[in-house]
Amino acid sequence: MARINLLPWREAARQQRKTEFAIGAGIGLAAALAVSFAVHTHFAQRIDSQQQRNQRLKNEIAQLNRTIKEIEALEKMKADLITRMNVIQNLQESRPEVVHLFDELVATIPAGVYLTRVDHNGRSITIEGRAQSNARVSALMRNIEAAAWVDRPRLMLIENKEKTSTGLSHFRLSFDQVRPKPEQAKASG
Fold this sequence. Notes:
Blueprint: H1 7-108, E1 113-121, E2 124-131, H2 134-146, E3 150-159, H3 161-164, E4 169-177, H4 182-188
Antiparallel strand pairs: 1-2, 2-4, 3-4
């Protein structure tokens, strides 16, 4: 039998397997590094893209907040203008009411009644005066009740002629100034 020494061949095969393993491990490591670099780059790009979108949204939100503040300022200014317009409108509407009030007073005062004082507080009017009799004060109240621009007379005080020593009764009466309905205003005006 011939003796063949297989040790150098085995050693060479082992050496070749180590080299192939090292090359395979290097290639695997390089591939793993390349894949991890690619994944890292991909996610970094996505993060940057999302941050840019977030920044754009923040800028848009800031712009919208400025616009909302401008709109709120305009709404406040509009409300102030509407309030002023309403005040002016009410003044325009109430301007002839004083004239109508005095016209109604002249028309409702019966003969024998004399006014000494007229107070106007908002929509309420208080008058003081002298009357020849209590019946004349009652006639005045009926006339106020029937008038278009004044209503709801309330007698506050009446002193008989004997107590006043003037021969006339002293009275205090309050009533409300009202805006008549359009058909009443046409009839009275």
